[in-house]
User: What shape does this take?
Amino acid sequence: LFLIAWIMTTAPVEWRSLIITGWMLAFIIGAFAAFKVTGKREPFYVYAGVGIAMLVAATAAELQGSALTIALTIECAAVAVIAHIILNDKAIAERLSLLFIGPGLLSLDSMTPRVWRDGMIHEDFFVLLTLMIALLGIGSFFLSLYTHDKEEPTPITIGLLVVGSLYAYIILWLSLHAEMMNDNLAVMIALVIYTLVGLITYFFLSLIHI
Assistant: This one.
């Protein structure tokens, strides 16, 4: 925190993101080096946490609003996948996927009806769409790993898929209300689709367990 504060107050504006990125790389390399040398996860969490904080700071220094949320979403997905590729550890990669909480909180502003009054194709739509794709993609990635290893998926993996599905339902609800003049018709269509998805999912899961 002291380092970030020093950079943000002392470094020239045009150099801030580059300096932060350099320190980010130093901490990330230190995280993997500490893990490889000691075999312990605690040093990895500490150094990787600082590196990720630097990444967020560098992104925030360059972007704002919807662009910041989309960038953070993509970075969170990349961090989880890269961590699994390098460390080959599902548990660590899954914990790192909890970083989606950050862009998830930022996306709450994109769900307010006032930003959907002029139609569905705008920056807030792409914020929600990016989060939906990222959550479902990372959740499916972890689910495939557990299926391959013949293990039960953890609550984190299930949570990623559930929250990703919720974003899909939210996008559908907001889009229908933005495109249709009649709110009652929009609600009816949304509820019909929700019901069909629920029935299809129920029967699909029932067939799996037979």
